[in-house]
Amino acid sequence: MTSYVERLSRIERPNSLAAVWCRRLAVFCAPYLLIVVLGHRFGAVDTISTFWLLGLAILLLIAAIVAGFVGFYELWTYGHKGGISSTRGMLLAVILLLPFLYHAAQALVLPQIYDVSTDLDDPPAYDTVLGDRDEKMNQIVDPTQVQKDVQLKAYPRVAARRYPLDTGKVFREVVAIIGDRDWTILTAQTAPGQAAIDAEGSALVAKPVVDASGFPLRIPTPSYRENARRRLPGAADGSATPAFETVQVSPIGRDVDTQIEEQEERYVEAVATSMLFGFESDVVLRLVEEEEGTLVDMRSSSRWGAHDLGSNAARIISFMSDLDNSLQGLRR
Hints:
By secondary structure, the protein is α+β, with helices and mostly antiparallel strands. It has helices at 4-9, 17-41, 47-78, 83-109, 145-154, 167-180, 311-327, and strands at 115-117, 160-163, 184-186, 195-196, 205-208, 218-220, 224-229, 245-252, 260-262, 264-273, 280-290, 293-302. The strands form two sheets. Strands 1, 2, 3, 4, 5, 7, 8, 10, 11 and 12 form a ten-stranded antiparallel β-sheet that branches. A two-stranded antiparallel ribbon has the order 6-9. The protein has seven helices and twelve strands.
């Protein structure tokens, strides 16, 4: 006599349609995301379309996870087939969602800004970069007091540098580091009153600070900048003298009696791209020739999106660190 277990084993269990679609959606999203990323990085897909396509991918991955849960429910309640399909589909969907979840967590923790500068009172100004932008991109405006406060709180390591070195030496190192990072340097034509730096300047130009009439502008030298980190001659541990000083965000404490001197500013403008998606950000560095050396400020602004997810601050901190290391041991 046939046992009850044997009779059950002969019953054909139906497949869970939800489990099947869980696997299909997850598998579809893998090449879909690859095509979107590569398409944007190589210019086949514009940035706004990329945002919409990424949003669609997120919805499909969430749908795959929901379908996987439905598949497990049908397996547990009705005995439908599909446990393996649900497991594989949900695992793949979660893996593909992890980068989006990470960025979502950053958006919750980090301030919603897209323009970061080492000098918040007088940020380095863009010039040539403006001709490479369109009206759909983020606006380039001076930071509000609220934006200044949130940047100072969230990114205290975003600080300018003051080097006891000739401006030409610092300028050449800045250009070299930009080249190493494969950023696109945007250069302007030499305008009246501008002089070419030198052969090592990669055809960039020095921009003297002038007034509306074209005469050299006499700028009060800042009496000091609030020190975030100071490593100057006379180290107590007897180590080699570092060639730099880190200074904080903006010139403060200018006195009426501050000595007035002519200063020269040199600018380097470039476009940086993110490593994975290739999203563009504008970068400008301002080198101010001082009596005792060179002051370097840096600004980085995302072209797209109201939230940079910390990328601009990370870019400035990393660049300044590389510049510190590159200038170690150099003298005027």
